[in-house]
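User: Modeling request: complex.
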Amino acid sequence: MAADSYEDIAVDKGDVIPALEVPPQELYHAKSFWTKWIFCQDAKVIGIQYSITAIAIGLVALVLSWLMRLQLGFPELFPFLGAAEYYQFVTMHGMIMVIYLLTALFLGGFGNYLIPLMVGARDMVFPYVNMVSFWVYFLAVLVLVASFFVPGGPTGAGWTLYPPQAITSGTPGGDGLGIILMLISLSIFVVGFTMGGLNYVITILQARTRGMTLMRMPLTVWGIFTATVLALFAFPALIVSCIMMTLDNLLGTSFFMPAIVEFGEQTEYSGGSPILFQHLFWFFGHPEVYIVALPAFGIVSDLISVHARKNIFGYRMMVWAIVIIGGLSFVVWAHHMYVAGMNPWFGYFFATTTLIIAVPTAIKVYNWVITLWRGNIKLTIPMLFALGFIVTFVNGGITGLFLGNVIVDVPLSDTYFVVAHFHMVMGIAPVLVVFGAIYHWFPLITGRLLHEGMGRFHFWVTFLGSYAIYFPMHYLGFVGVPRRYFEMYDSEFMAVSTNYLNQFITVVALIVGFTQILFLYNIITSSKFGKKADKNPWKACSLEWRTPEVPPTHGNFGKELPVVHRWAYDYSVPGATDDFIPQDIPASQVPNAEVEKT
Amino acid sequence: MFVALLLVLVTLGSVAFHFWSPWWWTEVASNWGNIDGTIVLTFWVTGAVFVAVCLFMAYCVWKFQYDPNRKAEYKPENTKLEWILTIFTAVGVGALLAPGLIVWNKYVTVPEDVVDIEVMGQQWYWNYRLPGEDGILGLTDLRNITDDNPFGINLDDPNGLDDILIQADDLHVLIDQPIKVNLRSIDVLHDFYIPQFRAKMDMVPGVVTYYWFTPIRTGNFDILCMEYCGTGHYAMRGRVLVDELSDYEEWLSEQMTFEEMIASNGKTDLIKLALNKKGE
Ligand code: HEM
Ligand SMILES: [Cu+2]
Ligand SMILES: [Cu+2]
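Assistant: Request completed. Predicted assembly structure:
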């Protein structure tokens, strides 16, 4: 095990300075207010722009969730809220949360801000394209918002946009502009994302500073990197299905449209396949889950390690797990279609691949909790969110084993069990990581700390609240309560008590929702009046905290780029005086530190 | 201390909720009780992992709280432990998958002695078709659908004439009789689901999907549409009544065949057409 044992990868022996592989990059310098703050080419500013836009549109999705919950808990409360509106809310809520909030925030927001800083680059490799990427995303959001105001309103086809119903008149927005704007907005989003995504990937591959080998990158970068690669492969399936559906809708082609009778009228369509759309959609849609999850995996690994003052356990295994999960995520898509009417023989294949994914995923969970073992755990707010993430993620992950196992999925699919499962695993869990990450990097971005008391309150209400919303919801699914139901009426199979459960969930959802307003208040006031933070308040090893100025300025690293001598996780190294050794510290500066052989 | 305690409470609270909350699945009314079996198995296996991980985490949080005079352990890897955990997980996953696939195999293998029936979905109600005396469902084509021929039955196919057409909410089935439901939609996706039967499958315009089940107890069961199908999705309800033989036959005798239906509409030329094809 000499050549590839862990310490050869992790730490330079002696003061070697690795050769420069790619010549340094010319930096763009903005001259006016417009190029500095609006059409800005600095990845940090672009990251903030992405984040603010994503959170703003995310708030719309949050408000929609309140209205839906009110309808589900107290159907009599808003007589003006009808079935059509409900379905429009469901659709827009789901689509915004998944695409316009989480994807944009993790990749566009965190990716832009953190990648150059963490790999020791001055900026993304294509700053101009990066700037355009944000504005294209912004345009996609505007088109999406516009669909709320067109006659007939936004589409109510469900976020999965399944044809035929997505483009027929029995669906809200189906025969008007609603669905068209949705398809256009998604296509624009994919275009914008591709510009940004190529940037993230090439920056990580080409612009790492000296000594920053791939196996020394923080897991945050690994997570964002792999997620971006997935997205670059997955989004094409989305954009082609959007275009094909637009053609079906506007020009009367029949890619996805078989012959149908629409409310007694024969139509011109013939020969298309609705199931083809589902394959295309989920070929994108399943990797999409990991596009959201992998950055969260990466970030949470770093949060746990920093705040437990201990190296992440099994770093190499963690990297491989991310990569393997990413690869496997392209061969499991049809587990969303077990009861969609595809050939039942596919069930064997997709159930097997899906359950195999559980293995690398479980390894990640084990490694997170083993990292805590014999750590020196600081229960800071980011750490609390990381712990909350593990609980929710494990919970959501094991219900994935139910739904992935084809026969178990049969009774549960399209019930509230599914709603609970995906909210736990790709809604709440990643959102908890987003919060943890914001508390963690806020001092880097603003130089100030978020208010501690408000933060802890925010954590406990959000974590316990969302657990209380979604854990019991699984049991509604066992009872058989279907998802996407505007109203249940009296149904014999449901005990009356399920209504009380629905009311409870609604009340808690409102409380959790309003607590997010407090969080926004905290962000806004603390960025102006918060307590001044030290330069590296959490004593982290990775490069983003090693800039000469905090918050980092244009170009990130001043005159000289840092040279990396070790991996990102040298916490509590025996013999060293401090309990952390930043990545750019050579062995000669920490003479007593000894790296244990493994 | 406080944090660890709450983590323990969340974990144990989940377990307590699982065992003591009143919400659990309905009593099964079909032969698919072994699907429930696979769910229970999954609960035990995954539940154990959930509790173990969460309690371990709570223990660490309690035991290894920050102390400036202490240093965390420095142990980047432990290949042996990582392999043990990997194998342990793989075995657990295999233990879930194998029985799951066996039951799935049953689900997709239709036995010989089933009776074919058809359920046809359209926005936003159900129609049913029984094969009639010949035991064969006549062929259909969506293009044939008119007011007089709501199922689009092929007049070229004589097997269709005696098909029994039910354009009402209620479908009656005979207890202990294995049934293959052929699922058809004429407009958008739907899904035919009865919670107590456990089985479900989407209906897709352009193809006929199916599943099979055997009702094992009498009673009235709600039909729910389980695939979003437009504004009326939530209202697309129906009922299956599982009958003993005498009740079933009484109900059946009240239903109309396709032939009777055309006749009652005064469209006897259609019948002639069909009978001509039959060579009579
Ligand atoms: C506490 C915050 C949230 C609440 C209260 C909430 C509530 C809801 C409700 C009531 C539905 C509709 C269920 C139905 O009728 O089928 C729904 C659907 C959905 N939600 Fe959330 N949600 C929240 C956060 C999120 C997040 C963070 C995500 C991000 C992944 C998300 C993604 C979705 C998706 C994809 C759907 C499915 C939409 C569809 O059926 O087409 N939600 N949510
Ligand atoms: Cu999936
Ligand atoms: Cu439906």
